[in-house]
Amino acid sequence: MNRVDWNALDEAARNALLQRPTQAIAERVRLGVAQIFAGVARDGDAALQDYTRQFDGVNIANFEVSADEFAQARAQVHASVQAAIIEAAGRIEAFHRAGISKPYALETAPGMVCERITRPIERVGLYVPAGSAPLPSTALMLAIPARLAGCKDIILCTPPRQDGSADPAVLLAAQQAPGLRVFKLGGAQAIAAMALGTARVPRCDKLFGPGSAWVDEAKRQAAQVPGGIAIDMPAGPSEVLVIADSGANPAFVAADLLSQAEHGPDSQVLLLSDSTEVLDAVAVQIEAQLQLLPRAEIAQQALQRSRLILVADTLQALDVSNRYAPEHLILAVREPRAWLTRIHNAGSIFLGDYTPEALGDYCSGSNHVLPTGGAARAWSGLSVASFQKSISVQDASRSGIAAVGPCAATLAHAEGLQGHARAVELRLESLA
To answer: Looking at the domain that runs over 64-184+203-213+227-233+384-388, which CATH code has it been given?
Structure first.
């Protein structure tokens, strides 16, 4: 990782420093995804088979996971992993259940009641990446809030393994939502299938889940499909920004950076510190710990686009972080909670030396499906509310229309919409 002094850079250099790796290849990805969507729209399941053969190297006749495959999954997953899935699921459910929004009603004038009610999105499509590593944790993060929301149909796509099967740990985690259907489809073609629908894969109302730059772009294009397809958020390659002061543990910081770098070559990790000693010590630790990682080659590729950044102080580090809007933000500083009010843009925040980002990835209880690529400026991480719609309801009695009708009619006339005004005035006249 290269070390850079933030205060020695001009604005153009600062912008370049904070650019995500995927932003440089966006046009190539956009065109490639568009071709995949066109192929699925034209050829349906045949296109999905072709893309699966091309990108995953496997021939699959039937994409949907059978009851037998679900039954066999438990026997293929070690008992300790099964126990960890159940333990994590319990905390994830507890946290998400506590955050379920409640309907409310308010009498805004005598006889005028306004309400807000919630309804589950009927059919949702979940994407669980596999790539170089299956992610049963993502299946938990998606399936549990979808179940809590009450979604009627839950479709999950995950890339097939070389033998044409789905990862058994992913299948085990997916069973946290009984009745969920799993399809062995990966990448942009999986997103296209759920967005467009084919003879075998149902068309979904909203798509969820993280993935590669290709999956992220596919979700963006899915949102442009006629018919109201929605997406949870831009959720592409993983990223972490760590702010460390002079008291930080360099080994801990290096481990946190590497934990995100090993996700994939297009991941990005940044360290900001006002201590040159910490930056130097972390660089040494990264090299030492990198030798111990089985996924060292992947992490090394991500580190080539990552940075160690020297800042004036923690306050400036937070300004840079807000500008970057990281998916994950780790505050490896003394009294980290005192800085929370200064943080405006982040997907998820991890406080102090003993809160590694990996806890949030698996089992702290919060959701790890978070906005990336700077989208944390406006988007939030996944919750039960992501799987629901809110609908407003109005109920006016005779006294209610009498109380608020004149105001509505006046505003309608002011806007030149006489039909609106007349719809109110007819009712006011009937009261006389």
So the answer is: 3.40.50.1980
Catalytic site residue from 217, 239, 327, 357: 327
Residue 246 has pLDDT above 90, yes or no: yes
| Cα–Cα distance measured from residue 349 to residue 326, given in angstroms and rounded to the nearest whole number | 9
Count other C-beta atoms under 10 Å from residue 319's C-beta: 16
CA-to-CA dists, residue 388 to 124, 230, 309, angstroms:
10, 12, 40
Q: Which residues in the chain are classed under CATH 3.40.50.1980?
A: 2-25+237-373, 64-184+203-213+227-233+384-388
Is the per-residue pLDDT at 236 higher than 90? Answer: no
Q: Indicate whether 25 pLDDT > 80.
A: no
Token code pair at residue 176? 């946290």
Q: Would you state the structure tokens that stand for residue 236, as one six-digit string?
A: 């592409």
Q: What are the two backbone dihedrals, phi and then psi, of residue 77, each rounded to the nearest 5 degrees?
A: -110, 130
Catalytic, 328? Answer yes
The three-point CA angle 85-331-134 to 5° equals 30
Task: Please classify residue 414 by burial: count the beta carbons closer than 10 Å to its beta carbon, then call 0-12 exposed, 13-18 middle and 19+ buried.
Answer: exposed
Written out in words, the top-level CATH class of the domain with range 2-25+237-373 is alpha beta
Q: Give residue-wise pLDDT tens across range 58-72.
A: 999 899 999 999 999
**Catalytic residue status for 327:** yes
Which position among 263, 328, 357, 368 bears the catalytic label? Answer: 328
The two tokens of residue 67 are 């009851």
Paired tokens of 42: 């034209």
